[in-house]
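Project channel, design review

CF: Before we commit to the Geotoga petraea constructs, I'd like one complete example in the thread so the newer folks can see what an input/output pair looks like. Taking Flavorubredoxin.
RD: sounds good, go ahead.
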Amino acid sequence: MNGFLNITDDVFYVGVNDRDTHLFENMWPLDKGVSYNSYIIRDEKNVLVDTVKVTKIREFLEKVRSLLDGQKIDYLVINHMEPDHSGSITEILEEYPDLKIVGNKKTFEFLENFYGVKDNLYEVKDGDELDIGNHKLKFVMTPMVHWPETMMTYETTEKILFSGDAFGGFGTLDGGVFDDEVNLEFYESEIRRYYSNIVGKYSMMVQRALKKLEGVEVKYVCATHGPVWRDNPSRIIDIYDKWSRYETEEGVVIIYGSMYGNTEHMADYLARKLSEEGIKNIKIMNVSKVHLSHLINEIWRFKGIILGSCTYNTGLFPPMEELAHWLEHTGIKNHVMGIFGTYGWSGGGVSTLEKYAEKMKMPLVGESVEAKLSANREDLKKLNELAKNMAKAVKE
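CF: and here is what came back for Flavorubredoxin:
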């Protein structure tokens, strides 16, 4: 089996799957793995677009050798220097020592610092083109999507966008590689998890990058992770536009931190009252059990956030503090928030969440509800009001 796939007659997929790595960037769970996508354009000059993580070099090189069948690589285009895409550069250079490396000025700074490579460089700037025969490559600078050196490569003849990490997501490509071969509902969730965790902080820069693509015909989107979009490439571009504008769906995510179940009971009560108010998309998530990446993914999706925390050592429950800090760091917008919790001999959990909401400039839908040890009848009445206010806010 040769392992490579035709995207068009002259453009090929030579990516690999990674089902071994547990954490992406040593932080984000890869429950369903990840793909590292690389591409080859065969023409008068042969071009390799991005490489793969060095742990997958053997499989990768087998595909490249099989496809080229003794031909050389003339150019290596580096759209992104993160090591899951640049990690095989030194091995590629050993195999094809005469190739020229195509990148921008910032790319080459990273290249030297990562791998000590500083020869055979072909520097490009925004809008520059490279003629390789029947195909012509145009380079689009997209800094901070999500590193400062990131760029995209647009093949003008067949309208192929090699987009780097943009439009990519988690999840291995299990047989199906193209968007018309896979379950898009699964991949869109994993793409949103990737976006919200890694790229979302730079949403303003994503909008700038998308503006550069306005009016450009794109027949294929070839990202460095996830499916190749050939059937409906506008779908993934539109999704990125929506997420980077912080557009949300009608629904509420309730995330709670509870040591002995009392705060959890309040979360369940709120969820029932939200349902009675006509909210159908309701997610209850345990901050101590569900990984941060999945919490952020659901928060990015739905307009309403309700955070509930017990008090811990006169402060916020530590796993909830991690989430609150990350939301502040991400700068998420266009959401509404509710707050509830419990305390024993001293408060601190709810008041700390309110301070985070203020720093995030996140509007609160009503009065926070804080119960002493467990919710009594008066607390439940307040939770009723919180649910009504939240339901009204997410429907607006």
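RD: helpful, thanks. The CA atoms of residues 31 and 108 lie 33 Å apart.
CF: Residues 5-244 form a domain with the Metallo-beta-lactamase; Chain A fold (CATH 3.60.15.10).
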